[in-house]
Amino acid sequence: MGQILELDKPIDWHTHLRWDERTKIVLPHSARVFSAVEVMPNAKDPDTGKMVVDSKTVAKYKKYLQSVLAETMGSDYEFEFIMSLYLTDKTDIQDLKSGYRDGLFKAVKMYPLGATTGSDAGISEVKNVAHVLEVMSELGIPLLIHPEMSPSKEMNILESESIFVNSTLSWIRKNFSNLKIVVEHVTTKESLKFVLENSNTWGTITPQHLLFNHNAIFEGGLQPDMYCLPLLKQIEHQKYLNDNLFKAIVLDKLALGTDTAPHMSKDKYKPCGCAGVFSAPVALEAYYQAFKNNLGNDNELIKVAMQRFAHILLPVYGINLEDLPKRDISLLKSSWQVPKEYEGITPMFAGQTLEVKALNE
Ligand SMILES: [Zn+2]
């Protein structure tokens, strides 16, 4: 097995770890290859049914994740959960201030109401949370945004992100010029352009939006495992993302964020199936493929680009690399077959043979 490249402490800046029986199935896949993950707050507290909308719930969720980590990876396994708070129309300013001061969370996530899985506590109108954005701007708390409109029968779903960028996102940028904004999982030309052209603005990008376009959802029949939100987009958007990937990394604008979003396969393969791609088991392999598609066979260059891609948001969050657990991940030339499922959850590339494998040394 020849080594292709080695990465030091990669971080996934967008991860769904759930808060139920799925957590112990999916968490080890992220913990194996990343030193830290940004945990999305659209997980439901099983006791209260609430999303992670206040600092008390953030603390409880983190404790739960730490217990699952200890159970699945061993009690001395070091791995960092970077927590975020779910922004709602009712976010309490005092709770936001004290939770952030106490280090319970490092960022706040905004979901427009109904835009994706677990967004039913999302905000109905951005102006309702202007006072929260003001405080976040003062304190330097990054705002993570799911950049799509709330659904509407009159709107083309493929244009939801572009419309959001030109309306809500532009409004936020104009009114809060010092607010740190991370545009999550960019899928369109408009989003990436926005990230590149605006100060205090960064983006994350998933492996599937680099490697695929919306044809993949319909290839040879309906493919529920390729259904995620935001949807895979048209070929011209995919091309723009790839053409500008390297530039966006050189400019410190675009970060690794898998948006790994596991659902039990039975909840995807049914009428009204769930949205989300479970990419964690193959995330680094998939990104490597995307980088290779764009940068060719120059593994030295790919290594530098991927390493930077994995660390770009550290200064935005105010996190020191030295404080993160050590993790050296080797990408090796090695043929392996991706399992068809992990305990009832179908991963990206299920059943396919990959030529590269990420190994935790
Ligand atoms: Zn997500």
Structure description:
Helices cover 35% and strands 17% of the residues. It has 361 residues and is of the alpha/beta class. It has an eight-stranded parallel beta sheet. The chain has a three-stranded antiparallel beta sheet with strand order 1-10-11, with helices on one face. Strand 2, helix 1 (23-33) and strand 3 (36-39) form a beta-alpha-beta unit. The chain is globular, with a radius of gyration of 19 Å. The mean pLDDT is 96. It binds zinc ion (ZN). Zinc ion (ZN) binds at residues 14, 16, 40, 259, 261.
Features of the shown structure:
361 residues; alpha/beta; 8-stranded parallel β-sheet; 3-stranded antiparallel β-sheet; globular
Q: Which shape, going by the Cα principal axes?
A: globular
Q: Quick one: biggest sheet?
A: 8 strands, parallel
The topology string of helices and strands comes to EEHEHEHEHEHEHEHHHEHHHHEE
Main-sheet strand order equals 2-3-4-5-6-7-8-9
SS-based structural class? alpha/beta
Average pLDDT level:
96
